[in-house]
Design a protein that fits this description.
It comes from Paracoccus zhejiangensis. InterPro entries: ArsR-like_HTH (IPR011991), HTH_HxlR (IPR002577), WH-like_DNA-bd_sf (IPR036388), WH_DNA-bd_sf (IPR036390). This is Transcriptional regulator. It is built from 6 helices and 3 strands. The protein has one domain: Winged helix-like DNA-binding domain superfamily/Winged helix DNA-binding domain (Arc Repressor Mutant, subunit A, Orthogonal Bundle), CATH 1.10.10.10. Strands 1-3-2 form a 3-stranded antiparallel β-sheet. The chain has about 120 residues and is mainly alpha-helical. The longest helix is centred in the C-terminal third of the chain and has 20 residues. It is globular, with a radius of gyration of 16 Å. A hairpin with a 5-residue loop joins strand 2 and strand 3.
Length: about 120
């Protein structure tokens, strides 16, 4: 039995208007933490604790939920290694890797328009 949580989608289909593809994409990768999680996974496989340290002030429960949603949407894979203590690694799928140009562009935009704005008097 699959126990992967499913999140309620806003729409069943995203082809009803010209902007719905954007809405569908943002539904999958949007939110406070998903973009940051995905950005850190661009560097390759990470364990849960490594992601949590990289992201910062995220709670364990929230990180677990975000990772499960990204896995359910086919953006990342979760690999459990049968060792003691258990080792779990997360890695972007090809679908997740396709987000790399978007995430890098967001980083550049943030550096130019958010971080530099804080430095300006």
């Amino acid at each position: 039995m699959d126990t992967t949580p499913t999140r309620a989608r806003r729409f069943e289909r995203y082809d009803q208007s010209r902007g719905c593809a954007v809405e569908g994409a943002l539904e999958i990768i949007g939110g406070k933490w998903k973009g940051v999680i995905l950005f850190h996974l661009l560097g390759g496989k990470l364990r849960f604790g490594e992601i949590r340290r990289a992201v910062g002030s995220i709670t364990q429960r929230t990180l677990t939920n975000q990772l499960r949603e990204l896995e359910a949407d086919g953006i990342l894979t979760r690999t459990v290694h049968a060792v003691v203590p258990p080792k779990v690694e997360y890695e972007l799928t090809a679908k997740g890797q396709a987000l790399a140009p978007i995430l890098l562009a967001l980083r550049e935009w943030g550096q130019e328009h958010v971080l530099s704005a804080r430095e300006d008097p």
